[in-house]
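Why run this: before we spend reagent on co-expression, it is cheaper to look at a predicted model of the complex and decide which construct boundaries make sense. The entries below are exactly what would go into the expression plan.
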Amino acid sequence: MRLSACNVSWSKGGISILENVSLDVEPGEFLGIVGPNGSGKTSLMSLLAGLRRPKSGRILVDGRAIDRLSRREIAKRIALVEQQAETGERISARQAVELGRTPHLGALAPWSSKDDEIVDEALRNVDMERLAARLWHTLSGGERQRLHIARALAQQPQVLLLDEPTNHLDIGHQLGLLQLVRQQKLTAVAALHDLNHAAMFCDRIALMSGGRIVALGRPSDVLSGERIAAVFGIDVDVVREGGGRCQIRYRPPGAPVVEMPVLRRISS
Amino acid sequence: MIGFANSLSRTGASLLALALLFAALWLGAAIGETAIPMDVVGRTIANRLWQAGYSLDPINEGVVWNYRLSRAVVAACCGSALALSGVVLQSLLRNHLADPYILGISAGASTGAVAVAILGFGAGLLTLPLGAFLGALLAFGLVSLLAMRAGRGHGAIILAGVAGSQLFNALTSLIVTKAANAEQSRAIMFWLLGNLSGVRWPDAWLAVPTAVTGLLVCLWHARALDAFTFGSEAAASLGIPVRRVYVVLIGASAMMTAAMVSIVGSIGFAGLVIPHAARMLVGIRHGLLLPASALIGAIFMIAADIVSRVIIPGQVLPIGVVTALVGAPAFAILLGRRGAAR
Amino acid sequence: MTTIPSIRRSLIAVAALMSSIASNAQAAETTYPLTLANCGRDVTFQKAPERAVSIGQSSTEIMYLLGLQNRMVGTAVWIGPVLEGYEEANAKVKRLADNDPSFESVLAEKPDVVTAQFQWHVGPEGVVAKPEQFEELGIPVYASPADCVGKDNTGGGDGVRYAVFTMELIYQEIAELAQIFNVQDRGEKLIAELRAREEAARKKVASANGKLSAVFWFSSAELDIDPYVAGRNGAPGYIMRALDIRNVIESDEEWPTVGWETIAKSDPTIIVAGKMERRRYPADDIALKHQFLRSDPVTNLMPAVRDGHVVEMDAQAMNPTIRTIEGIEVLAEAIAKSGLTQ
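The model came back. Tokens follow.
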């Protein structure tokens, strides 16, 4: 399934948040969206998920405008994991994941064993099977985040949208989560704030600034010292590896520039 | 095998629930201000439903059928409707302190009632219940408008509801203090606290369809309500048409509550506490929670009505007093157990 | 000319002599300053008042019956039309308000006495004023004993009557007003007339031998709802005791609300229904009261309703006023006519 944004603009309260953004998500890729706060990442995710309507331009799903589809049809194809999703209910881990079957079930269709299997698999995928019976409020931030992903997986989407999924997680869980996403056989688009994570896991990166996409391509093509300085206002050294990958080395403010040799992979 | 056992236990549970409901209705018909032998209830029902021809004292039979049984039925509908509205609002507004009156409905109904009873609005064409219903709708309309202007989200609705309730409560107080004498104030007080005394079968013809329709509408949306567990954005991403669900469910709650308040006055606590009790018993899945709340609400209200009639001999307490006196400590206990469980 | 036996003739002569002596004998003249104990206060009158304001229809009508209309400058609180025969007299006196007058409107008439029927108008929690407010301006206040003797009015509103009402309290009011205005002869005459009427009524129903029972229905907040019926301590209680009729309502409150179930099961011989001009509640209308009794599925089974023993009585007679005597007469007449005394 091909998800695209065509010249979308969006504003809120009179302030323009996204201007003329165009983006084609390649099926099967892991696309990262990076940019400073206020660059429009979350808004773009909302638009791609069909939760908000662009002020101008269109979001297309396989060439058709997304607003032609009902909410349910969108939900069967696209799953969104939000930045913050909390609840005060005494819900168990398994029940939280079961919610992911909602778009497929409708009002009257009964729960079947097939749904149970899908939920089981989603829990296995995020390594939360052991904790399936635990109550939500007894779980840690990382465990909850994994459950959100499991819920999205239970939706059996073709595209998985993640809005800053690694917030509130420790480094081990951050990397584990991104690896998990990468391993899924679906298209994934993630808004990330850590450039190195984006560089490590994403096939392509869209760099956003001031409501526009200023660069789109492989991590090593998009992330350059000048661009990062221009967008983020910090000085970095970019260490390029082969195969489109790179690493960002942050310079403490005021440190001198150091020339780094280009490291080449021995095998790709 | 598990599926069969599941569906068997589900049928068993439904039958048990129905049996409990019938038992409660029976008790409601059997117990009242005056003593009537228990067997009269069965014989009355037999006489009325299939002309069994038992010979009974006509006043006893009349009391059991026309007064007590109709009242028990309406009490059950009222309890169900308030409990269902409570569940729906607590889930949609993501606030466990929400209750049906949060939309300003009870306050508006009171204002409508005093306007008719004290100011003489409608000049004899409007009855008190009709005035109450119109007042409820007016208040709800105002609250909805305020909520839409206040922006998106449930916080807006709650704030608008508070504002609307305060406004209409103030109007009620104004009318009562300026225009009412002691006798009127007393009548209004009785009405404001809920009163099932004037209920007859024609009231049941309104109450039963309202409650049943409300239950069906809510059950239809059981999955949608589950989807709101993590918020309206999450619900939207799970395929729920959020705006439509808000309109339909809040509208249904408003209609159910307004209808019930116009028949029996405003009875507090049921809509607030029963959803919590039901959640503790059957969990948070709305497919179970909704019918369980409806059942517990029905039984609770019948019980409250019985208590209000027998606890002080020769006098009938307003039912709202009983629900509050029972509801408040029950709520406190529930909160304590929740805290302990954590 | 009929011949009368001689003994009887002499007896008649003696009687005639004695009554002429009695009427020629002067009733006492009031000496001023006059101090009376009235409702827990001492009230002093320097002279016979000339400019009275009367707040309360019963007190007003007593003063008309005492021929005092030329010494009145204002009236207020009217529940129905004035006593028959006194319309001309009433027309001469300014009506300050149909309901509670304002303190200043009373003062504007520059009264030298204010008489009050109800404590909740002029009393410790009076909505018009407290008596002290008038007394500070040199205006003495006389309150009807019927509303303060044996009553606790500290809570405001209707107050609670803890001792039974008797016509003696009205007779006391007549005697005291006659004393205040120095028309004691008229007062005595009025009291004697009223006692005679009471006695005549009592005789009419003596043959019922205390076998009758009744319930007094004032009105109801809604037609189907629990009615306001008379308890034991108010004016209806007195009417029933005067005629040796048992009150099926055993409450000590003046106007408790009691369910139709209890009333129906207690099977009163007579239902006394209040007739009034006010239309605040639908049940105020006597026609609707009749209609309700006939159409409600339980009340229409009551022997009192089936046999047509529903007596209409002016609602003012149901309150502790000068008209309570009329109430006794109306009820006695109805009983005698209905053949219940057989």
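DSSP finds 14 helices and no strands in chain B. The CA atoms of residues 41 and 322 of chain B lie 25 Å apart. Bring this page to Monday's planning discussion.
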